[in-house]
Design a protein that fits this description.
heterodimer, A: about 90 residues, mainly alpha, about 70% helix, B: about 250 residues, elongated
Chain lengths: ~90, ~250
């Protein structure tokens, strides 16, 4: 039976990031864990949020082509030359 | 208590060791940059060019514009490096410059229509993480607020550890479709792995707002992955747990 302060699934899904970031109060965390222990659907939901975050992190792996590197280096050299000229004139 | 003393000691030791070395490296990098060291510049650009492009891309409508913004940012960094005082981290400073420029470019993109204020955009009141129709409503005597259409495990991705470029494409598209604040916070936190503190510092958000924006963004990305998995997991695999089946929310209670 549900106790009066038990979380509903609909409440739990709003707290997942707070739970993962560990910012829930000790009481709320305990309620969250208690709900998870008895609700396989919310465990699935939490797993999916974790997987979503993990997979999102893999987007960083696809390296972008270094097309603009030469242009940047040119910009750097120009900046350096200007700096040197300025310090000579100082 | 002995433990707390130990813990306190460990913390002090850790603090003494870790951050300064990162900080020293950063100071050395800034000093080298000021001295016009080309290697230092290349190190810095290599480390940040991908992330910077992705962040810029969250503000502007084309890859080419994002590249211009990044280029422009590096020039501003070089011009300003003498004034960098080390009060914020180099990264925070760098991305503040980038974000300012990307915002301006983004406004130009949309023909000068300014962005609505940042936080409200990500914090629009009525945005549940999961649609209300998937839960029993308050009138249900026993299962109010519990799953009516529960999530089903993503068999093909989880079991086969098969992460296809198609899956990554779904995630990329989902992030692109997020409202700007959510797109930016998800990109920084979940793609670039920034800490909450770094994101708050760079974007001027409170920790709570940052978390709410992040949560909304992530929830939508999950939703898109769920729809994708439904479309391919379908058929007999999903049979016994088909969403909407009477009593689906009851398991385990």
């Amino acid at each position: 039976m549900r106790a009066p302060d038990d979380l509903a699934c609909q409440e739990l899904v709003e707290l997942v990031t707070d739970y993962l970031e560990d910012v829930l109060s000790a009481d709320d965390r305990a309620r969250f864990d208690r709900h998870l222990a008895t609700c396989p659907h919310c465990r699935t939901y939490l797993d999916e949020m974790r997987l979503t975050i993990e997979l999102t992190g893999r987007l960083a792996e696809d390296d972008l082509p270094p097309e603009s590197r030469d242009a940047l280096l040119d910009a750097f050299r120009t900046w350096k030359a200007t700096e040197e000229e300025q310090s000579r004139n100082r | 208590m002995d433990h707390s003393t130990d813990d306190a000691l460990m913390t002090t030791v850790k603090e003494r060791r870790k951050p300064p070395s990162a900080l020293d490296a950063e100071c050395a990098l800034v000093a080298a940059l000021r001295a016009g060291d080309e290697d230092a510049f290349l190190t810095l650009t290599r480390r940040h060019e991908g992330p910077m492009l992705r962040v810029a891309r969250t503000y502007v409508s084309s890859h080419a514009t994002a590249e211009d913004v990044v280029q422009d940012t590096w020039l501003a960094v070089l011009r300003g490096v003498d004034r960098f005082d080390g009060r914020s981290s180099l990264k925070t400073w760098l991305y503040r410059i980038l974000i300012n420029r990307a915002k301006t470019a983004g406004q130009r993109d949309r023909r000068g229509v300014p962005d609505p204020p940042f936080a409200p955009q990500g914090l629009d009141g009525s945005e549940p993480s999961v649609g209300a129709e998937r839960f029993y409503d308050v009138s249900h005597p026993q299962w109010a607020g519990h799953w009516k259409q529960p999530p089903t495990p993503w068999e093909c991705t989880v079991e086969d550890r098969l992460v296809t470029s198609e899956v990554m494409g779904v995630i990329g598209a989902a992030i692109t479709d997020l409202p700007p604040a959510q797109r930016l916070v998800v990109t920084l936190r979940d793609v670039e792995c920034w800490t909450a503190q770094e994101v708050c510092g760079a974007l001027g958000l409170s920790e709570t707002n940052q978390r709410v924006i992040l949560h909304r963004g992530r929830s939508k990305v999950r939703q898109r992955l769920e729809s994708y998995h439904r479309s391919i997991d379908g058929g007999e695999r999903e049979g016994p747990r088909r969403p909407g089946m009477p009593g689906a929310g009851r398991t385990g209670h």
